[in-house]
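Sequence, please.
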C-alpha cells in the first residue's frame, strides 16, 4: 500500500468516525430524550456514549499506527508528532477526560453528592468536550484527504 493510499484510508476512517460522533450527538441522544422518560433516555444515552468512548480509544490507537506507518514509508521523515498525530492524541485525551473523568462526577452530581459544579454545568462541559472531539476529527479527516503524502 502506498503512503498516499494509506493516508486517504486513514482520512476516510477519521471521516466515518466523525460521522458516528455526529450521529450519536445530534440524532441518537436527542431522539431518546424526545421519545421516552428522561431516566430511561439518560441510561440509553449513557450507554451510547460509553460505547463511543471505547470506540474512540480503539480508533485513536489504530489511526496513530496508520500515521506512524505513513511516516515510516515517506522519505521526508516528518516528525512522528506532527499536527495529525497531535490531533489524534487530543481526541484520545478529550475522550478520557470527558467520559472516564467527567462521567463519574456527573453521576455524583445527579445524585446530589457533588460538592462542586452542578449537573447542568458538568453536562455543558461534557458537551463542549464532545464537540471539540468531533471538530478535531473533522479537521483531521479534511487534512488527511486534502493532501498527498510525500
Amino acid at each position: 500500500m502506498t503512503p498516499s493510499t494509506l493516508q486517504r484510508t486513514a482520512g476516510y476512517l477519521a471521516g466515518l468516525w466523525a460521522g458516528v460522533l455526529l450521529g450519536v450527538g445530534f440524532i441518537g441522544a436527542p431522539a431518546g430524550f424526545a421519545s421516552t422518560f428522561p431516566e430511561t433516555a439518560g441510561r440509553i444515552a449513557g450507554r451510547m456514549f460509553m460505547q463511543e468512548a471505547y470506540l474512540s480509544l480503539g480508533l485513536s490507537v489504530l489511526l496513530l499506527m496508520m500515521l506512524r506507518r505513513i511516516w515510516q514509508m515517506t522519505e521526508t521523515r516528518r516528525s512522528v508528532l506532527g499536527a495529525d498525530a497531535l490531533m489524534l492524541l487530543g481526541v484520545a485525551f478529550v475522550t478520557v477526560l470527558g467520559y472516564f473523568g467527567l462521567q463519574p462526577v456527573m453521576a455524583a452530581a445527579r445524585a446530589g453528592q457533588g460538592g462542586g459544579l452542578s449537573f447542568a454545568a458538568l453536562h455543558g462541559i461534557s458537551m463542549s468536550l464532545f464537540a471539540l472531539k468531533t471538530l478535531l476529527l473533522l479537521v483531521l479527516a479534511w487534512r488527511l484527504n486534502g493532501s498527498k503524502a510525500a
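The first helix runs from residue 3 to 35.
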